[in-house]
């Protein structure tokens, strides 16, 4: 058989193995019970995930971040959100206190040794994510589900980082993506993305946890950008190209899309909320992994990251905050 034929056959098998995970045939595996959740990264996504899990799924959470400043900022924000909910009579003061008490924090990743499920939400840097997964495969119990909130990095690749022996699936089969949308307390959608190694029990447990958090899971194949960002990021990137080539100013670009497609904000404001660095990281993955020039990141997007104008989180993006 020629090399090309072998490669085609391998690709067909990989595709079959992946589609198997998305078949509608009922599976016998039952979701495992999650009694304690770990969240890595107390930034805008990690904090939101931890808060929603504490409120809706009523789970004890261990929130880990290497930066104490990020933890302090995150907890302050969580308190503000809880007080807002109390003020609007969406929850009682007792509910807010109980949710707050379910959140404990640490700057030491070793403190995740007793969680049943961990969700990683550190910056979109492939080497950082793979390093963390190789660590948590050792630290967390051998039954724990290891989930990532990555916007674009291959789940198969992240799962592979949990072992040095590709034939040993004990850790890689527990890796999955629960890709929450921003802002987590508001957006109901979660993408569930499986790697080639992910087991059915891992899928069932992740879906069950997301439902307990009040979310609506959708499944996506492990393909660059998955579903949400494969569609959303080229839209934002095109808006930035329209700005840099003078097709419209930022107000007009945002206004026509906001008022013309009935969405809460236009693409440039949305990019500020997502984080300009996150948008660039996702466009780079789409561009590099597909090799398709239609995903070329806008020049202005790169320049804004160089300038440190990362959007709302840095106080300056397309708009000032
Ligand atoms: P962020 O920059 O707001 O927060 C990242 C946090 O991780 C920071 O608090 C940082 O201190 C912490 N961190 C860095 N290195 C760490 C380490 N080694 N261990 C523990 N903590 C560490 O980022 P974010 O916007 O919350 O994004 C997190 C992830 O979620 C990324 O993968 C991103 O692609 C994805 N995501 C983001 C959005 C969005 O709209 N921002 C939406 C969906 C998914």
TrEMBL record:
The species this protein was found in: Aplosporella prunicola CBS 121167
Keyword Oxidoreductase: yes
Site (Important for catalytic activity): 179
Name of this chain's protein: 3-hydroxybutyryl-CoA dehydrogenase
Pathway where this protein functions: Lipid metabolism; fatty acid beta-oxidation
InterPro entries: 3-OHacyl-CoA_DH, 3-OHacyl-CoA_DH_CS, 3-OHacyl-CoA_DH_NAD-bd, 3HC_DH_C, 6-PGluconate_DH-like_C_sf, 6PGD_dom2, NAD(P)-bd_dom_sf
Family membership: Belongs to the 3-hydroxyacyl-CoA dehydrogenase family.
Binding-site positions, NAD(+): 41-46, 65, 124, 129, 151, 182, 313
Keyword list, A-Z: NAD, Oxidoreductase
Keyword Signal: no
Domain of life: Eukaryota
GO molecular function terms listed in the Swiss-Prot or TrEMBL record: NAD+ binding; oxidoreductase activity, acting on the CH-OH group of donors, NAD or NADP as acceptor
3-hydroxyacyl-CoA dehydrogenase NAD binding domain ranges (all copies): 36-217
Pfam families for this protein: 3HCDH, 3HCDH_N
Coiled coil feature spans: none
GO BP annotations, alphabetical order: fatty acid metabolic process
Domain (3-hydroxyacyl-CoA dehydrogenase C-terminal): residue spans on this chain: 225-321
């Amino acid at each position: 058989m020629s090399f090309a034929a072998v490669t085609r056959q391998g690709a067909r098998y990989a595709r079959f193995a992946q589609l198997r995970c998305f078949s509608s045939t009922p599976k016998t595996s039952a979701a495992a019970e999650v009694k304690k959740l770990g969240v890595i990264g107390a930034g805008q996504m990690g904090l939101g995930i931890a808060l929603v899990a504490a409120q809706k799924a009523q789970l004890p959470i261990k929130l880990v971040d290497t930066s104490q400043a990020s933890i302090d900022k995150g907890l302050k924000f969580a308190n503000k959100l809880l007080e807002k909910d109390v003020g609007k009579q969406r929850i009682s003061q007792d509910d807010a206190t109980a949710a707050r008490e379910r959140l404990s924090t640490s700057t030491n990743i070793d403190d995740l040794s007793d969680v049943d499920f961990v969700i990683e939400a550190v910056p979109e840097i492939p080497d950082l994510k793979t390093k963390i997964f190789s660590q948590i495969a050792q630290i967390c119990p051998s039954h724990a589900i290891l989930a990532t909130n990555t916007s674009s990095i291959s789940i198969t690749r992240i799962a592979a980082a949990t072992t040095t022996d590709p034939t040993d699936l004990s850790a890689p089969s527990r890796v999955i993506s629960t890709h929450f949308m921003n802002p987590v307390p508001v957006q109901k959608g979660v993408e569930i993305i499986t790697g080639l190694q992910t087991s059915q029990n891992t899928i069932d447990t992740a879906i069950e946890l997301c439902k307990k958090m009040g979310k609506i899971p959708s499944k996506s194949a492990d393909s660059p950008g998955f579903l949400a960002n494969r569609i959303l990021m080229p839209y934002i990137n095109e808006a930035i190209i329209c700005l840099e080539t003078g097709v419209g100013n930022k107000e007009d670009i945002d206004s026509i899309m906001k008022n013309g497609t009935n969405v809460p904000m236009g693409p440039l404001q949305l990019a500020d909320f997502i984080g300009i660095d996150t948008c660039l990281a996702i466009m780079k993955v789409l561009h590099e992994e597909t090799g398709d020039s239609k995903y070329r990141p806008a020049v202005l997007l790169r320049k804004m990251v160089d300038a440190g104008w990362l959007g709302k989180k840095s106080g300056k993006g397309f708009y000032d905050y």
